[in-house]
Amino acid sequence: MQHESMKIPYSAVHPGTEATEIFFYNDCKDVFETLKKGREVLAYDGSFLRTEEIRRVYVTDTNVAALPQVHQFLESIPDSSVSIVLDAGEEAKTFENVLKIVTKAIDAGMTRTSVFTGIGGGVITDMTAMAASLFKRGAGLELVPTTLLAMVDASIGGKTGCDFQNYKNMIGTFYPASRIFMATEFLQFLPEKEYKSGLAEVVKMAMLYAPKLFMILSEQKDAVDRRDPETLMDMVLRSSRSKAAVVERDLMESGERKQLNLGHTFGHALETCAGLGVVTHGDAVAWGCARAMELSCRLGLTEDDSWKNDVFALLERYGWCTEPQHPALSALKLSREETAARLLAAMKNDKKNKDKNICCILQREMNSTVIQDVKDEDILAVLA
Description:
This protein is of the alpha/beta class. Helices cover 43% and strands 16% of the residues.
């Protein structure tokens, strides 16, 4: 027999910052000069600190640390701050590396008023943010994204995480950065496959929210391919504004923000089945967008195939696969039906799923998006 009951009401858990400020620059040196400048910063405990008083944990990877601008900056940090350089690539996105960052902070005697500063692509920004969210239940966080993917997607919105048991971002938290510094000059140093990977996220944002951005990608491919500085800034600004607006309305991904996963349910399954790091995240998302459009048509969400054809044409123009099965899956040496079943099984681990059906992000047309649970047989039909 129950004796009594009790209820404790809670306000929303504080995400570590009241707001995120995003600063856009052309040159890398301007970012590092800003980091060094004296400026009042709101600490986690509500106090204000001058920039020069803040002890920092700088986190980057071997590729970014090799850039002259970054190397020179890290050599100049004060003795009160520390840096850690991790291996580069998706394979390094592990909980062990998150703990390495935390261990570095503990060994250096950092406190909750210290700031974790991630300088790198999505792998580094995700892991740095996760480490900051876990360290003493929350330290300061600032990010310097250096890849197109990190600028338009990974660094904005507070999602942190690492891969686990070959599944993408299976462990993570929500913890937005207080400040993000973007310099499009970093994009000139990217290997072509990493630049193209980020470009897929730009395509996704264009499909979801930005018709003008879709037009830029379609009509200014030469400028996009040669990384024209003005075009890069235009793409980064338009993509960032779109994502920031969605995150402001739905930080915890309870509704509208799920739209940002367009292409990702299929794409993450591809990354898992091919082996993390075999296919770049962007290439997987581009393929996933094609599969989502095929599924949208199959389910009768579109009036005709015109929007799907426009998307396919753009994806194929930039060299992305739109076929039901990505070439990277051939290494599995399975039949088409067996490969489709393997992809379906991976999709069932997607975080958006709530029951036996898979939650998919689909589209009726540009900027008209549907979040819908889909039966297995319909998904298998667009994968075989």
